[in-house]
Amino acid sequence: MSSAVPLTPVPLSTEEAAAMSQRSIKKHDVAIMLVHWFNAATWILEVTTGVALITSRLFRVAPAWYSDLIGGVFGSRANLLKFHIALGVLWIAVLLPYAIFGFRNYLRAEMLNFFERDDRRWLVIRLKMILGRTDEPLPPQDAYNAGQKAFALVVWTMVPVVGISGLIMAFQLFSTTAVGWAVVFHYLAVGAVVSGLFIHVYMGAVFPEEKPAFFSMLTGNVNELFAYSHHFKWWRKVKLAEQAHERKQSPGPEKVP
Amino acid sequence: MAMTITRRGFLKSAAAAGVAATVAPASAGAEVHPPGWSGAARVDKIASNCDLCFWRCGVLASVADGKVVRVEGNPAHPQNKGRLCARGNAGTGLLYDPDRLKTPLLRTGARGEGAFKPVSWDEALDFLAGKLREIKEKHGPESVALFPHGIAASFFIPLMRAYGTPNIGMPSFAQCRGPRDVAYKLTFGRPVGSPEPLDLEESRLVVLIGSHLGENVFTSQTTAFSTALARGAKLLTVDPRFSTAASKSDWWLPIRPGTDMALLLAWMNVLVTEKLYDREYVEQYTSGFNQLAEHVKGLTPEWAAPLTDISADRIRETARAMGAAKPAVLVHPGRHTTWYGDDVQRGRAMAILTALLGAYGRKGGMFLPTSIKTGGFPTPKFPVAARGRADGAGGRFPLAGEEEGVTNGLVDATLSGKPYPIKAWITYAQNVLGSIPQQARTLEAIMKLDLMVVVDVLPVEQTRYADLVLPEATYLERYDPPMVVATAKEPFISVRMPAIKPLHDSRPGWWIARELARRLDLLAWFPWETPEQHLAKLVEPTGVNLAELVATGAVAFPGKPYLEDRPSDERVFPSPSGKIELWSKQLADLGADPLPRYTAHEQPPTGFVRLLYGRAAVHSFGRTQNNEPLHALMPENAVWLSTATARAWGVADGQRIMLENSDGVRSDPVLAKVTEGIRSDCAFMAHGFGAHAPGLRLANRRGTSDNALISRVSVDPLTGATGMRVNFVRPVRA
Amino acid sequence: MARYAMVTDLRKCVGCQACTVACCQEWGVPAGQARTNVRTTPLSGTFPDLKSTPMVEQCNQCDRPSCVEACPSGATYKDAGGVVQVDGGVCIGCGFCLDACPYANRFINTATRKVDKCDFCSPRVVRGEPPACVATCTAHAKYFGDLEDRGSEVHRLVFWEGARRQETSSVAIGPNVYYLGKPELVALAFSSDPPHSPKLLTAGQALNGLVRPLVVGMVAATFLGQAVAFFAQIHKGEGDSHE
Q1: Contact (CB<8Å) A192/C114
Q2: How many CB atoms are closer than 10 A to CB A174?
Q3: Does residue C111 sit within a domain?
């Protein structure tokens, strides 16, 4: 194995690629994975029930029969709302401690370095690629590509809005005006996240290229080849850290740099 | 000993007393769950009557888990038939008022400081009995005056009379109905009574002169009034203010205050001279017509017009309308009639008018009461008071009755020490600072007393000045003597039974009176142990099934309301002559006018307006201002000022102003209601507000007190009644 | 199916507020609030030619209620008897319906912080009892019944006695509370507090006019975007993978 860690991605030989594809790098710890799937399940149920709750012609996004159907599942609209609130409260109860105590997990440098030049170019090129308009290579990305970072941004800003506005509506907090506006912001925030979710779910679960990403959320690991090709900057950090770690462990014969 | 009875407890003991209890109670509960009370295993509906005012409509109190959750009208009650006014519906607001008196209180600081310590009932009653014995020895029992009010007064009155004092002062006479009842008794041989025997539903023309029905709400009378209007009766309202009744009237006569007598006499003039009176009726039933005709000859509408500020045409037109509608013309006798000091005479004029129209004892007019014979326990005669009454009733006020007395006469006696000193006052359900005018004098009198005792439900204004305060249970927690109402087309007996046990450490009036009697060795006048026994004895002669009475709340009997129902040999008019006395010999013998005469009353000086007062539909006098739901609907009163007056005073609608009267007495700040609906020579406010009662957290100092501004009274020489519409007010310059 | 309605006879009503207190007591409405609105009209005219009348209002249980549409959660709806109900279990207290009512007969109950209003005492009516206000009215001024029942008092009063409903040229949503009385006084009662066109709170307007189109647009765009990408992916085959 070459101990050189390149600065930018270099084309790999088939042997190197094959070797890399056999090796794994840990990407997500257990907490992140559990929270992710918990969120996924909760959001599916909450969006399903939430959309059913909006019946007024002026505001609805689903037809009347949908509201009746989902309402029927719960017996009454009151029960439907109770469920939506109970699950929402549970969601907040799980997320809040994680948000407070686990921030080191998610507020990492590679997530916070929003929209460097590489990210901006990546977004533009990626969009062109979808439309089949370019063959340009994508700029190297960190642990999370620009698209993922953008979605994270949406989630981090919108989730508190969803949660707080949800609580205001559930418990008639502050004032009637507050509840009225909570309806608006809850609607908007959920809409923003759902829009992002379409991309997120497609990219994660449907788009074949990102399959390793999907499985990383189940196993916690990605294969090194995927990391090298899709998240080079992160691969590089991991490699450098590995080497530094090895040097510390066995300060034996000098390694050739 | 049982202090209170529940309906079931009553029925058990009634059965024990040998009375058949075969009828099931009104509602056995369980099957009906009132809305919002799911979880209550059982709801009982207890039949009783209301005490938020003095009409005493039948109510049903719903009790769930020991709590009264709803008070509503009792459909089975013959008087109100299930209907109930705002105050009646707010019964729980009184029952659960957090400011209620909760324990007996004994004064610790100086009188008026309001510093008390809670004591036990034994301690309180022993103290009171001791004091009464002491006063009896030192000053004689007549030196104790009782100021009662309400139904349970009938426990306290015999107690004090047995103790040896004749001095009873109820404001219902000298501050309210006295002049009217005396006037109608002089004319027809019987007082008007309460509830008034008015055949409103059958009227073709209702005449309100001094009545603001609709703001003065008595449930059954409001029903009858509205029914009359819906059936096409015409309405004539004489009122300086555009009242609710005025807004429904075919004629509204905005009369100059103080001149009603002139209008009444002019109406009589028209009826007599145009021969519109009921001639047959007058011939058959009345005496003194010729003197009357002579008396009103010159008192034409033209004479009355400048005095009353009502056009002669209008006076004539309305008199003719009465003549056309007779005998189904209801001249409402009014209720609070203590206005200008000549109030007996004004009442006489109204009685005479009624008689001229042939409306007394006739359909659509005033019907005759049918008495119900009730029973009682044999008790010893009351001791004769050696020094006689101190209030002047029957003496300097020849036509004031013994039963209700003259409250202000007692205040006079306490202040002057004549005819003999009054050393102690006991009040029961009467706030003397609110009920009696000339508050400053009343307060001065209280401060002179050796003993001031207050028996009440709430810490009203006078409570601060008491030496001993005894907390009574509310009407929903106590037995009171039943209402025996003869002045109904079908007379009835209506019971008041407790729905729950007394809250806090309060006790029913009957228990307080009886316990005091026991300590004073006066139990001979209370020869019953339980309310059941008391009630059973009372209704015994009627033959009513006691269980049925208690279960339904009231039992009605057949009535004979009209003259045509009475046998021809019956003495229908119990006057001395047996006829309706248009010309009153009794008055002549007393040196008073045998026929009513117009007296000009003082008009407001420049810059002043006359202060008028009255009722509000959601309050009862000064009793309900602390009742939360009623307080929410009307937390304070406002002073009605005409737009012209307001302009002259520089006052805007909704502005808070202070008034001062001719004696320089100042009101608390009060909202001004600027309106076209009142004459420019008077102002109006609802009575009962502005109490300085720190214990009443909602009511304290909200609005202003009309009573505080009534520092002048015009005393009716015949009855001692205090005419109170003789005060003038102007704004206080900032 | 029934069509419940109320008729108030303004000739008889004296504005005594018995109905208000009975209703508040029956339903536990906090002091200071009420499902009824009893008032006396301002005086019309000048002394001594004056006109005024008491007036009683409560939810009109309209034929075409504008409040129902304004409710985002469907908590308010018209039931089989024509009564406009508010399901407290579904109401979130957002207040959109308040201004949507032209008669301002809905309010936020300060104890529950949710919408409250007259429901013609539905639980009582189900038990065969009249609404509390009708039962207690001291003036016997209120009538309640089913307009579809030809034998009912309200049917007679509305269709034969000329009881009028409070509608204007701009607000005609079919209120089911009618009024009897002297024509000029009924007119005065109506004109002194006329209904306003149904309005939506700013928040509701923002939701309907701005946020909903925005969200629908965003969601549609991303969904379509992914659909396009999906079809592109299928079209290209699996060969596009970098693996």
Answers
A1: no
A2: 12
A3: yes
Listing DSSP states for B537-557 in one string gives HHHGGGT--HHHHHHHSEEE-
As a whole number of angstroms, the distance between CA C229 and CA A207 comes to 9
Q: What is the pLDDT of residues A94-142, one digit of tens each?
A: 999 988 888 777 777 666 677 788 888 888 888 887 777 778 888 888 8
Helix pair angle (A146-171, A176-201), 10° resolution: 150
Which class for B669: exposed (0-12), middle (13-18), buried (19 or more C-beta within 10 A)?
A: middle
CA distance B612 to B564: 41
At the topology level, CATH places domain B194-368+576-589 in: Dimethylsulfoxide Reductase; domain 2 (3.40.228)
pLDDT confidence band for C103 (50 / 70 / 90): very high
Hey, what CATH topology would domain B609-731 get? Answer: Barwin-like endoglucanases (2.40.40)
pTM of the model: 0.91
Q: Which CATH class is domain B120-175+373-471?
A: alpha beta
Burial class (CB in 10 A: 0-12, 13-18, 19+), B232: exposed
| Shared domain check, C140 and C221 | no
| Same domain (yes/no): C10, C65 | yes
What's the domain count of chain C?
A: 2
Can you give the residue ranges of every domain in chain B?
Answer: 7-98+485-498+529-556, 120-175+373-471, 194-368+576-589, 609-731
Residues of C in contact with A135 (CB under 8 A): none
Residues of B in contact with C40 (CB under 8 A): 244, 247
Domain B7-98+485-498+529-556 has CATH 2.40.50.100: no
Question: Which tokens in the block code for residue B517?
Answer: 């009697």
The rounded distance, in Å, linking the Cα atoms of B517 and B511 is 10
Mean pLDDT along residues B36-42:
48
Beta carbons of B175 and B714 less than 8 angstroms apart: no
Average pLDDT over chain A, rounded to an integer: 87
pLDDT reported for residue B204:
98
Q: Is residue C196 part of a domain?
A: no
Whole-angstrom CA distances from B632 to A170, B90, B192, B635 are: 30, 11, 35, 6
pLDDT at B20 over 50: no
- CATH code reported for the domain at A23-234: 1.20.950.20
A and C adjacent (3 or more CB pairs under 8 angstroms): yes
Between B366 and A133, the more confident residue is B366
The kind and range of the H/E element at B147 are strand B144-147
Does any CB of chain C come closer than 8 Å to the CB of residue B229?
A: yes
Q: Which residues of B touch C31 (CB under 8 A)?
A: 628-629, 631-632
Query: Which range of residues forms the domain containing residue C181?
Result: 4-191
Paired tokens of B694 = 């720190």
Closest CA to C138 of B213, B488, B587: B213
Q: CA B635 to CA B646: how far, in whole Å?
A: 23
Q: Which one of B222, B628, B643 has the shortest CB-CB distance to C16?
A: B222
| Subunit contact C11:B227, Cβ cutoff 8 A | no
Instruction: Give pLDDT tens digits for B304-360.
Output: 999 999 999 999 999 999 999 999 999 999 999 999 999 999 999 999 999 999 999
The average confidence (pLDDT) of chain B is: 93
pLDDT score of B107 more than 80: yes
Q: Do C136 and B244 touch (CB under 8 A)?
A: no
| Token pair belonging to B633 | 């609907």
A202 with C230: Cβ contact below 8 A: yes
Q: What DSSP element (H or E) covers C98?
A: helix C96-100
Mutate which of B83, B253, B641 to test chain C, going by most C C-beta atoms within 10 A? B83
Q: Where are the domains of chain A?
A: 23-234
Residues of B in contact with C137 (CB under 8 A): 83
Q: Are residues C82 and C11 in the same domain?
A: yes
Is C140 close to B223, i.e. CB distance below 8 A?
Answer: yes
